[in-house]
Known about the structure:
InterPro entries: Acyl_CoA_acyltransferase (IPR016181), GNAT_dom (IPR000182). This protein is of the alpha+beta class. The chain has 4 helices and 7 strands, in the order βααβββαβαββ. A 4-stranded antiparallel β-sheet has the order 1-2-3-4, with helices on both faces. The longest helix is centred in the first third of the chain and has 15 residues. It starts with a strand and ends with a strand.
Amino acid sequence: MEITERQSEQLPALQALYLASRRAAFPWLDTREYALGDFERDTQGERVLVALEKNRVVGFIGIYEPDQFIHHLYVAPDRLHQGIGRRLLLAARQTYHTMHLKCLTRNQRALLFYRAMGFTCQGRGRGEHGDYYWLQLASHD
């Protein structure tokens, strides 16, 4: 597997992965209005690292750099539990020493993953999609 910076020719694959992954990850939300074009809007201004396997996009992480905030971490639904999310986080960790993210409290699979990666809960909040935890991965220095 290779982790690279986003390339323009990857856009169709990233759009499809983002749409399929969100629909699979949030079954309690009404996802009927999600669309392929959401990817560009939702990652605007972010650094996007892409996981490639045999030239297939299998995951990505979107980071809002000024805050070291992980806004997106998605893996192709047919490739979950194969270390892709872990590899993306480790790649980001090489640049960003303290990272933050919000994770919906109902997203138990993601919460287990982030806790296993060393994130700790720094607080709670409520957003348009429900309650969330504010998680932090502290500096490893």
